[in-house]
């Protein structure tokens, strides 16, 4: 197997996918490739992936490698850290099963990660899951004590311009199955018209579906300038001490923003913002709701998520649930209206056509004879 193409490189996969084009070779340094990153690489239709770290280490059963292999995208691994500096963005390289060349010169060794390798490491990951779960629970409980202010009312919720009171709110995170979920609830969005909140890249997801975010919230590290300019309101997630690195980017674009200092994740404070502004119902798309999701994000616990869902739980529903509970349908009055509208032209044409008028007159006479009128 020899694969030839232009290389694009970045140690952060989420940044790299913004620059990738059809047929590129992706050079990454991503330990335990997660499902979201793998799906993004598949969507860009790269020729192959070269990883300077372990694509699957066996720490837990991450599904990223399986997604790439299923899409027919080969994965090569190398422990040669110098490779990242040896190649330049846009260089044409060739990747063989055990080496990488540029201009016919071998610049690094590599190893092809095949289906058997992935299957073996997945098995190890599943065996390690119980141990990881123990650590995860311990960290969750430890940090829950520190972050309890999220639910006890000690957290100051900033004032926003968007009027949420007694309306449905749709919170979109660019997470697992977010596209499928958004497609599934299009009827709900079109008919109910909920307030649309995009969490970082979730704002771009809303734009992709032809909608404008009412609010975008996050640390501004994975949202496009286009989305920031289109959004009706921007909320920057700051550290508890008030430091907000993402605010500079917003100001550099000449835009205004509300700063929300809080612990936890941006999706957590998006839910809190909706809840504290008296949302009638909060629908979540792509949010993290299980241990694997959090392990894939490198988080050691889900204290803030646990606490926030404890607080907003009565008003929170996952988009998959909305799809099952809600089915857009035509109301009877609309069906009757459509039927009448369709019949009117037929009736008018019929009455204007002489033979039809004679036929109707004969039918009237026949009915009178039958009923003795």
From TrEMBL:
What is the designated name of this protein? SteA-like C-terminal domain-containing protein
Keyword Nucleotide-binding assigned: yes
Name the InterPro entries for this protein: Put_SteA-like, SteA-like_C, TPK_catalytic_sf
Report domain SteA-like C-terminal positions.
Answer: 320-370
Q: Which UniProt keywords apply?
A: ATP-binding, Coiled coil, Kinase, Membrane, Nucleotide-binding, Transferase, Transmembrane, Transmembrane helix
Biological source species: Acidilutibacter cellobiosedens
A GO molecular function for this record? ATP binding
Alphabetical list of Gene3D superfamilies matching this protein: Thiamin pyrophosphokinase, catalytic domain
Q: Does the keyword Nucleotide-binding apply?
A: yes
Sequence intervals crossing the membrane: 334-353
**GO biological process per UniProt:** thiamine diphosphate biosynthetic process
Coiled-coil residue windows: 119-146
